[in-house]
Amino acid sequence: MQAELLTGTSPEHAAKLIIDSRFGLQEKRDGVRLLVRRQGNTFEGWNKQGQPTSVHPVLASALCSLNIDEFILDGEFESPHFYCWDLLSAQGTDLGAYAYGERYKILQVFRGCSTVTVLPCWTDEGDKERMVYEFRVRRAEGVVFKNLEAPYRAGRAQPVFLRVREDVSTEDCSFEQVKISKKWD
């Protein structure tokens, strides 16, 4: 199973995505990429290269507590917690062709699982700008801009990634660069 991979972006392009209501913003976590499929009591996992990998027993046990016995989740594992941002299938329905905004709404049912965090997705321009700043202050890995109208596509597709840490090279971005370039567009 192939994951949808991130593509880097420039501060100028990120500024445009902040004001574009078609794009949501999420935190880029610094965990291990993991696609998780449940079929009954069987769990399978795949890494970002599409190679099979194990699903941590604590995560599998927690996911068994849900009344959903077939699904595929996309996220990052930071032992023993799973941060997810996408739902590719549920109860026999392939959701990959659905718009991300629709998949994200359906994903909310996983909020009831103790070891799963559904990453927030900010869509308001002011919220997106505020969160880029907060993530930079926290020295988070970065942010991801997701096209709310896009289907899921394995490989390098729609989501774009912007690094927000202060200690990155000048090719990467700081919040000040995003804010400045936004003013000039």
Summary of the model, kept short:
The chain has 185 residues and is of the alpha+beta class. It has helices at residues 11-19, 57-64, 100-107, 125-137, 175-183; strands at 4-8, 23-28, 32-39, 42-46, 52-53, 70-78, 81-90, 93-94, 116-118, 142-147, 155-163. It folds into 2 domains: 4-28 and 121-183, Dna Ligase, domain 1, CATH 3.30.1490; 32-118, 2-Layer Sandwich (D-amino Acid Aminotransferase, Chain A, domain 1).
Q: Any descriptors?
A:
seven-stranded mixed beta sheet; globular; disordered C terminus; single chain; 185 residues; D-amino Acid Aminotransferase, Chain A, domain 1; 5 helices; Dna Ligase, domain 1; 2 domains; alpha+beta
Characterize the structure shown.
This protein has 185 residues and is α+β, with helices and mostly antiparallel strands. It folds into 2 domains: 88 residues, Dna Ligase, domain 1; 87 residues, DNA ligase/mRNA capping enzyme (D-amino Acid Aminotransferase, Chain A, domain 1, 2-Layer Sandwich). A hairpin with a 5-residue loop joins strand 4 and strand 5. The C terminus is likely disordered.
